[in-house]
Amino acid sequence: MSLPIEDYALIGDCQTAALVAKNGSIDWLCVPRFDSAACFAALLGDEENGCWRIAPHAEEADDWQADVGITRRYDDHTLILHTTFETATGRVRLIDFMPPRNDDRSLIVRIVEGLDGRVAMKSETSLRFNYGATTPWVTKLPDDTNGIRAIAGPDMVTLRAPFALQGESMKTVGRFEVGAGERIGFVLSHSASHLPLPDAVDAEAILDETRRFWETWGERAVDAGPYTDYVRRSLMVLKALTYGPTGGIVAAPTTSLPEWIGGVRNWDYRYCWLRDATLTLFALMNAGYYDEARAWRMWLERALAGDPTQLRIMYGLAGEQRLEEWEIEGLAGYERSKPVRIGNAASNQRQLDVYGQIMGALHFARLGGLDEDDAIWPFQLKILEHLETIWQEPDQSIWETRDGPQQFTFSKLMVWAAFNWAASSAEKFGLKGPIDRWRVLAAQVHAEVCEKAYDAGRNAFMQSYGSAALDASVLLMPLIGFLPPDDPRVVGTVAAIEHDLVVDGLVLRYSTTQTVDGLPPGEGVFLACSFWLVDNLRLQGRMDEARALFERLLAITNDVGLLAEEYDPVAKRQLGNFPQAFSHVSLINSALGLARAASGQPTSIEETIDAG
């Protein structure tokens, strides 16, 4: 059975990623890409759906040792995971990592290091392709080395060890002992089954290469005062969730981790969302990672290319548009939370907010001095022409509701932002366009939002026109410059959200009992929204409250600094897909905002990028 979500850690090679549990079990791995079928899927089922565990072994019972003390950390500023097991006979460290990929192979390297005493250990591997549905044909390696080769259809996995491995009950098992100062390396490699057997890899040499990669990469991070370590860890999460060949950043490396245990709000997040575009670009540039920001911007431009009327809200890692949703019957779901979904039907929705995200990302890319394709501005003009014809229509907006379109406030805010940022780009960079018309349209949208989305009786902007429900997405209103943070209507909206949507100090995105979204009620607080409240408190000059809430959020990160999408403040556990890029992007932006405010530096999006 899978462990609590917060008991997992991330390793990755910048093309896919694995989740490693505290007990030493790799319970999730999709190869060769983030969105490929999993060969370890125990996270959404059990060990029969695929996993690889290395942990202390109870020799008498031929089982895993009980009463083992476990601590773990990442090796300094890297994505190399250290898990230390303390037993009655000694201590041992398990070192897990995935070398950044430079060929068609995806590698997982696991090194067992004896620290003191002598510990009996066991490696047990259950390879199950196609999300646990396909058992491969497993044979010993033909080159007279220790290890096995597993093949099923297009996939081949080899597992090499320094001693012979045995097949037992459809698993590959190795029992061994490790003493102080000894190091034993395992290397798992995935490649296409029609290719030759991959060469053996020196585990220690590639460990050194991987450490140098992450240490060099992490050195570029800007100082964030007391929050620097959290910012660096979050930046490494974003790097690990980047599909290196294209620059696309997946929302998370997992699918169907529930937003409420036992519920149906289980979605596939292994794709790239346009809703994340502006804040992600801002976070990367603000933190000093312009190469990654440029790669993300270039992915965005390629994904958008085509007919503006066919714009999607999300795309595949290389810009794919067909992300059909289907359900896997053979997986029980995380803690019996079904269905398990592959693909995402929300990709076919209309979300007007993405137009603002596109214009914002490209505007800030120009402010930051990122080179651009000469064709992108003419394409933006075409997108804006299309937006002029549809902006008054209802949509599903940022939360991808499945109960039909509405006139969502956040969507209209981002429509305003699209025209406003396009006009600002044209004015600042001498680009040709109907600036006056955009300004008139922006003013029209602004007036409509202030008239139809604002409830004077509650002194707050509501979720949609005429709605009685609040929505935390409106917290982005002062961050994008729609109204100043001290405007009485903004202050009133923040106060209303604090009163109605805050649970144990953290923010729900909306009330699932008050809002009809096409799904049964019940979900956790949404962590990105809680960071947006931090930003609003800071902008209102409520610095002590902003810092207190931010540190409350930092306390939710797990023992290695990772965040899921949501959190259950009653059960005190993380919820939703993990780790979540949007949560970590929001952490970075809030941390840098607080650090810059403390030193008297600009904190708004435009001022920060323009000054940097």
Write up what this structure looks like.
- It is a single chain.
- With 612 residues, the protein is an alpha+beta fold.
- The protein folds into two domains: 5-206, Beta-galactosidase, Chain A, domain 5; 228-611, Alpha/alpha barrel (Glycosyltransferase).
- It is built from 13 helices and 29 strands.
- The strands form seven sheets. It has a 16-stranded antiparallel beta sheet that branches. It has a three-stranded antiparallel beta sheet with strand order 27-28-29. A two-stranded antiparallel ribbon has the order 17-18.
- Helix 3 packs across helix 12 (581-598) and helix 10 (527-539) packs parallel to helix 12 (581-598).
- The relative contact order is 0.10.
Q: Gap between N and C termini, in Å?
A: 48 Å
Determine the CATH topology of the largest domain. Glycosyltransferase
Radius of gyration: 25 Å
CATH architectural designation of the largest domain: Alpha/alpha barrel
β content, as a range? 15-25%
Tertiary shape: globular
Poorly predicted parts: none
Number of helices: 13
Class by SSE composition: alpha+beta
Q: Under the CATH scheme, which class of the largest domain? A: Mainly Alpha
Mean of the pLDDT scores? 94
What portion of residues is helical?
25-40%
Major sheet? 16 strands, antiparallel
The number of distinct β-strands equals 29
Number of domains: 2
For the structure shown, list the relevant keywords.
single chain, 612 residues, alpha+beta, Beta-galactosidase, Chain A, domain 5, Glycosyltransferase, 2 domains, 16-stranded antiparallel beta sheet, 3-stranded antiparallel beta sheet, 13 helices, 29 strands, globular
